[in-house]
Amino acid sequence: MAQTPALRYTDTADAIDYTPGSAVTAGAVIVLGSMVAIATQDIAANEKGSLALEGVFVVPKITGALTVGVPIYWDPAGNPVGGTAGSGAATGTAGSLKKMGYVAEAAASGDATVKVVLRQAV
Questions:
Q1: Long-range pairs for 23-26 at CB < 8 Å and ≥24 separation?
Q2: Which of 7, 25, 40, 116 is the most exposed place for a label (fewest CB within 10 A)?
């Protein structure tokens, strides 16, 4: 019996296709199972778009200082500094949250954002 040939893989390691049930704004952080990804452009509801799995992004953060190189997690219900409560924010506290990567640039407690190296755990 002949081996079944492999199909050509078209996604790259740093992005995947994504079709949301409702519209997604560019820069939105999306949790898919154990993965944390970021929309690279606006995506209309039920239309295929792209989510980044790797790269350096600036994301909203909760109150608290963050040091370069420490793991960073995404809390979909987090309260961002100066943002809408419960709208999602990065945090240095793991709990049951999904790891999104590592802090790329130190952030003070009152900073509204943190620079993150988005990297999926392997």
A1: 24/49
A2: 7
Q: What is the mean predicted confidence (pLDDT) over 18-37?
A: 95
Number of folded domains in the chain? 1
pLDDT > 90? residue 24: yes
pTM, whole model, 2 decimals? 0.85
Q: Is residue 85 part of a domain?
A: yes
CA distance linking residue 72 with residue 57, whole number of Å: 12
Per the structure, the complete domain to which residue 67 belongs is given by 15-118
Tell me the two tokens of residue 92.
């240095």
Residue 53 maps to a domain: yes
For residue 51, pLDDT beyond 90: yes
The answer to whether 74 and 88 have CB atoms below 8 angstroms apart is: yes
